[in-house]
Write a structure and sequence with these properties.
single chain, about 120 residues, alpha+beta, six-stranded mixed sheet, 2 helices, globular
Amino acid sequence: MTDPKQVAMAFVKHYYTMFDSNRQQLAGLYQDASKLSFEGQSFVGTKNIMQKLLTLKFQKSKHTVTSLDVQPSGCGGLLVFVAGTMNIDGDANAVKFSQMFHLMPTQQKTFWVHNDIFRLNYG
């Protein structure tokens, strides 16, 4: 099996690169069974998740990952916890965020996002 940390690091880099450059591309990472919790709001399925991500109140973002933890979750899945900072619309003052992904394998040996939980960290 591929090292879970390497898989998680590659996924996170891919996810935030797409989020920061063209959020529309994130649709390929979600499926109809995917669930997103974004600042306490819940969304199910690719269509609803993408509607939320594409209608966020900012146009540009830049994510910087400061830590990443990963654990195998059974059934070949991975739990990935990310902490970092995000600059929004060019603002020099970054906000802290935490995000958790539950990745599930596909038959093609790639991963899709089964669960995604995002929170800004204030304080």
